[in-house]
Amino acid sequence: MIIKQDYPQLSWEVLCRLFGKTRHAHYDHLWRAQNDSLKEDVILQLVYETRDSLPRLGTRKMIHMLAPRLKSHGIVVGRDYLFDLLGVHKLLIRQRKKKAYTTDSRHWMHKYNNLVKDLPVARPEQVWVSDMTYIRVMNQWGYLSLITDAFSRKIMGYCFRDDMLAQGCLEALQMALNNRIYHDRLLIHHSDRGSQYCSKDYVNVLLFHGVQISMTQNGDPYENALAERMNGIIKEEFNLYSSSLNFEQTRQKIEKSIKTYNEVRPHGSCDYLTPSQAHTQQHALKRRWKSYQRKWQKENPVVKAV
């Protein structure tokens, strides 16, 4: 290999000719390499800044959020480029395994029929989905109850407690009812058949507010898939599978995470609007996500393409 330092008497022009290149092509290569390095630095800096508030935000939503800021730097990148860049820097999201169970449907209380199966959801506050999930807090368990609007994906109500009693679900429900905007519209509340949602107090609150009650029928999680998905988003993207904080600090972190989810995070099922923005829409929202299978995903099956 010819190195310029070994032959100081040779000019760059002569060396470039030996390789069949012009001197301008050599410098152009150096300038492009420098520009590419600067471009990567800018992108990675913006990625790190975004993940301060959205620590597990997927790559497709990331590129949507960063596009205006990158444009201000004169940078335009595609989805595959960002996937490859984050892959090189070990910044792709890794999927976690579960699971523990928070549903006990083996009880004597009345169970309701599934009213939302095959029901098209066309407006906000048409269907709410509800579920409870667990979070490890130091040396104890905490239980998070969520109520989500099926159209906008907005978390309408939540409660975090250190027990699985119906009181937590009731507090989440009351918050959701207080946050309603369209009070004159028919609303269906859908949940699993857990004892918390079948309890007399919970059912009475729904009936008092004229809310129809719907429940899963066969214990199949796909019958309440949206609520299950919401649990995963909050826990995965905001690092809430476990917490090294105390219970009150964890509760504050959950509150901040839900606010960020509702008001900052774009949602692929809502035309990349935030849930709060989507909740004000009165027309069908375009779904922006697809099921992709990429080469790097086949080679790294534990990496989640999001």
Short description:
Helices cover 42% and strands 12% of the residues. It has 306 residues and is α/β, with parallel strands linked by helices. Strands 1, 2, 3, 4, 5 and 6 form a six-stranded mixed beta sheet that branches.
Indicate the topology.
Blueprint: H1 12-18, H2 23-53, H3 59-72, H4 79-88, E1 127-137, E2 140-149, E3 155-161, H5 166-178, E4 188-191, H6 195-198, H7 200-208, E5 212-215, H8 225-237, E6 242-243, H9 247-263, H10 275-278, H11 295-299
Parallel strand pairs: 1-4, 1-6, 4-5
Antiparallel strand pairs: 1-2, 2-3
Helix pairs in contact: 2-3
Q: What are the key terms here?
A:
single chain, 306 residues, alpha/beta
Strand content: 5-15%
What's the average pLDDT?
81
Distance between the termini: 44 Å
Number of helices: 11
Largest sheet: 6 strands, mixed
Helical percent range? Answer: 40-55%
CA-atom Rg in angstroms: 26 Å
Question: What is the β-strand count?
Answer: 6
Broad structural category: alpha/beta
What would you call the shape?
Answer: elongated
- Report the order of strands and helices: HHHHEEEHEHHEHEHHH
Uncertain parts: none
Summarize the structure in words.
With 306 residues, the chain is an alpha/beta fold. Helix content is 42%, strand content 12%. It contains eleven helices and six strands. It has helices spanning 12-18, 23-53, 59-72, 79-88, 166-178, 195-198, 200-208, 225-237, 247-263, 275-278, 295-299; strands spanning 127-137, 140-149, 155-161, 188-191, 212-215, 242-243. Strands 1, 2, 3, 4, 5 and 6 form a six-stranded mixed β-sheet that branches. The longest helix is centred in the N-terminal third of the chain and has 31 residues, at 23-53. It is elongated and about 90 Å long. The mean pLDDT is 81. Residues 120-283 form the Integrase catalytic domain.
